[in-house]
Design a protein that fits this description.
It contains four helices and 15 strands. It is an alpha+beta fold. It has a six-stranded antiparallel sheet. Strands 1-15-14-8-9 form a five-stranded mixed sheet.
């Protein structure tokens, strides 16, 4: 009888924690706690379902826990993406105005596999390709990816392997500014994402690269699909690191 009460207690705890997690997931800062409560709700709910103890409460807690975690994750994912877009806009604006600075910018040509030696990082191009759907190399049950909303567009995505050579943590969103130029006339900006084994492609704005460790960073550039089809027209990828722009001729 005592064992049964313990199992029922876990189911009840799962439902209660799930309700609290849902209520807190919309409140800034407190929604960090909501993630913890949601995970506990999922664990307790699973135990209750497996042990067949008050399955209704256990299932309710399990579902509420999943919903709360997904809501919080999506909120921060959206905020991170918005911050990256603002950061890219500022970087692009800074790049234009910096031409008038006393220190002139350099332009160098680079090939795939070559290493860019920056002030705080060593960077190499791992791959570049066109795709309307960009997915992480490893996928969990629930994972994030990028897919163009307009079927007439596609992504040119570049994977950079970045090693932090400084003595402090490096902000992943500040490693490089990547743009593309089509037919020497049309320019396109990018946004970046980090591949995560559990979450999929997540935002770079809250990612720190530890000293002497490497991190792959995806740079996605949305452009008309016709550019991918016109294989004879040149496409250049420009990777700006510190005060130097490295030009990679994709084709």
């Amino acid at each position: 009888m005592e064992e049964k009460e313990k199992k029922s207690g876990l189911s009840t705890a799962s439902m209660v924690l799930g309700i609290i997690a849902i209520c807190m997931c919309f409140i800034p800062l407190l929604n960090y706690i909501s993630i913890i409560l949601g995970v506990l709700s999922i664990i307790f709910g699973l135990i209750g379902i497996i042990k067949n103890a008050e399955r209704g409460k256990a299932i309710a807690g399990f579902v509420l826990g999943i919903i709360s975690v997904v809501i919080v994750y999506n909120m921060y994912f959206a905020v991170g993406k918005a911050l990256e877009e603002v950061s890219d806009t500022i970087n692009n604006a800074t790049g234009v105005s910096s031409s008038s600075s006393t220190k002139s910018e350099e332009t160098k040509t680079i090939s795939s596999g070559e290493t860019i030696i920056g002030k705080d990082a060593e960077i190499s191009i791992e791959s570049a390709s066109f795709s309307q759907k960009v997915e992480p190399p490893k996928k969990d049950i629930y994972y994030s990816y990028y897919q163009v909303k307009d079927s007439s567009n596609t992504y040119l995505y570049i994977v950079l392997d970045c090693k932090n050579t400084s003595t402090i943590d490096l902000d992943a969103s500040s490693v490089a500014n990547v743009t593309a130029k089509y037919n020497n006339n049309y320019s396109y900006s990018s946004f970046s994402a980090i591949p995560d084994d559990t979450l999929g492609l997540t935002y770079t704005s809250l990612t720190r690269i530890k000293p002497l460790t490497s991190q792959k960073i995806y740079y996605l550039i949305e452009m008309p699909k016709s550019i991918a089809d016109e294989t004879d027209t040149p496409v250049e990828i420009n990777i700006k690191v510190d005060n130097t722009t490295y030009v990679y001729k994709y084709r």
